[in-house]
């Protein structure tokens, strides 16, 4: 997180959260469309079921380490940025989950007493 004296941390561009977090599947979907590769061919080349690839591309399934490494092997896209994007997506979604935030606040109250 970037800090500047006298400026609220949430007012610095690098610290802003997007209104709608980007699932790494969206980026992959754009990439394969740009390359003109069909989802079925890509799934076959990766050795995964078409439904699995389609669910990732539509943001219904997360990108895990193995999947990211398969993408790296087939499309020559580095796995780590995809995994970092997935982690960032997960954090933003969790921060916006009201029930989870409630749970965190209760834990923080208990921890403050310790």
Topology pattern, helix = H, strand = E: HHHHHH
By CATH, the superfamily comes out as: lambda repressor-like DNA-binding domains
- Per DSSP, the total helix count is 6
CATH topology: 434 Repressor (Amino-terminal Domain)
Distance between the termini: 27 Å
The Cα radius of gyration reads 18 Å
The overall strand count is: 0
The percent range for helix content is 55-70%
Q: Into which percentage range does the β-strand content fall?
A: under 5%
Structural domains: how many: 1
- Biggest sheet record: none
Backbone shape: elongated
The CATH first-level class comes to Mainly Alpha
Model regions low in confidence, pLDDT < 50 over at least 5 residues: none
CATH architectural label: Orthogonal Bundle
Mean pLDDT figure = 91
Structural class: mainly alpha
Fold and architecture overview:
The structure is a single chain. The protein is mainly alpha-helical and 114 residues long. The protein has a single domain (22-113), classed as lambda repressor-like DNA-binding domains (434 Repressor (Amino-terminal Domain), Orthogonal Bundle), CATH 1.10.260. It is built from six helices and no strands. α2 packs across α3 and α4 (65-75) runs antiparallel to α5 (79-95). The radius of gyration is 18 Å and the shape is elongated. The mean pLDDT is 91.
